[in-house]
Amino acid sequence: MSEMPDWEKRFRAPRVSLPEWAADAPGRSLFVSNASGTFELYAWDRETGERRQVTRRANGTTDGTLSPDGEWIWWFDDKDGDEFGVWRRRRFTEPGPAADGASADEPAAPGLAPSYPAGLALARDGRTAVVGRSTDEDGSTLHLVREGAAPVEVYRHRESADVADISHDGTLIAVEHTEHGDAMHAALRIIAPDGSTVAELDDTKGGGVDLGLCALGFAPAAGDTRLLVGHQRRGRWEPMLWDVRSGEESDLALDLPGDVSAEWCPDASGLLVVHGYEARSELWRYDIAERALTRIDTPRGTVSAATARPDGSVEYLWSSAAEPPVVRSTAGGVVLEPPGQKAPASVPVTDAWVEGPAGRVHALVQRPAGTTGPLPTVFELHGGPTWHDSDAFAAGPAAWVDHGFAVVRVNYRGSTGYGREWTDALKHRVGLIELEDVAAVRDWAVASGLADPERLVLTGGSWGGYLTLLGLGTQPGAWTVGVAAVPVADYVTAYHDEMEALKAMDRSLLGGAPDEVPERYEASSPLTYVDAVRAPVYISAGTNDPRCPIRQVENYVAGLAARGAEHEVYRYDAGHGSLVIEERLRQVRAELDFALAHTRV
Prior knowledge:
By secondary structure, this protein is an alpha+beta fold. Helices cover 17% and strands 35% of the residues. The strands form eight sheets. Strands 29-30-32-31-33-34-35-36 form an eight-stranded mixed β-sheet, with helices on both faces. A four-stranded antiparallel β-sheet has the order 1-2-3-4, with no helix packed on it.
């Protein structure tokens, strides 16, 4: 029996998320792990060392949280992986899970019908929650849920909105909303438990440029009405403090390039700052009274998540493209070690900066150790689109490298991490803008001798899958083969079938609905160019996907089939991707086999 290859070991290796801890019971934690073969929730009692699996469902579970008192675990039950469901809860001390995953788990908000989740905020009293819901029929609604009482609606609007947080004393609720109609730039409203408005903060008004806001959390101290807010007033994401009662805004003016986010330290005296710049990140402490930044030593790479503990230490989840993720503490050592075999290392990334149509485009490049070009090359495009690839460990790119491919990941216009103008450039000519940047990087890769122009794979998932199909049709001579996972393939049908929050995003990106700007949807839809596709195409799609629904994928596939274009389609019983390791491995094997067959590696 042959030994399992490294690429497969990376997918199978047990992983853990950064443990969340209960605000008033810091010895109780909740984390996500794939130790069972499916990503599920796990409870961890730090005082006894006990860890136990909380959920066991066919399609996995990753959306959960602890009540501040540590008594309850809330988790979202969407049944078929379609993201439409209800919140359930169970006692932290409840043994489990039961075979059906829910026998010990009661409805957390009785009386609320299934919906897409739109945020959840749990109060410190252990009896109160604010549940955000989104449905096609109602738009966005927020409900105050008190133990022993019927849910009370405190907010409703047709456009997208989420509950962001509830104050320490439970008297203030932070709402991120897009009532102005731009789903890409939220405004903030503070409401009381009766639904009345306490304060507003809206950077989308005036100045000719819409700026977004996000609520990063109320101060964790009794009587403190400060809200930590993310803003874009200087062209990038930065934190500030807003006293929602007095209206006072405190600009922190952190002298750091790139995007900056933050969370409160437990005593509210300072902030834990996460600084992201050019696809890498680092940590800082900010003392509010002294207005002083102190660097926290972390290795070069990416901090995916971090949290400040009551003892003054910081726990963080770190990785690099070469080194697998690990949860570390500034107090020293590894915080949470997953069981079983560790993931094999991969190869590091190098940075490429390429002149594009609107400025320099950043790409991350990996190649098999000891190789020289030209190489068969995979251009892997990230999803989002408001996301970015970073110097972080990923089993997918590493699998391509193990099979002899160079991998190039492009942070095209629309990506986060390079300033507001770069992110907001994605307007009206959606898809076509990103592909201009991808084309520039492709030309560089060929001209530099890295990439073999006869063996180029275009691939991605979600928005990256969308760009893959669009690129195969609009740049038909540029690509040898395409591999698209859970893509948008027929933009008009996708709009009609997708969840309401994504409809709002599409209206913002394209300037209206399909019946308002039909020419833009046509220009940005892969289906428009399906007859121009020359490269063989592999497509995978979840039959319960609410983000890139299956009907629009079938329309595109029918277009390929009608003219006998070479293609393969894989459908699986889940939503927008799979949390089951064996299912994910089936998909990756098929993608690799398809690409290898058409690139003659």
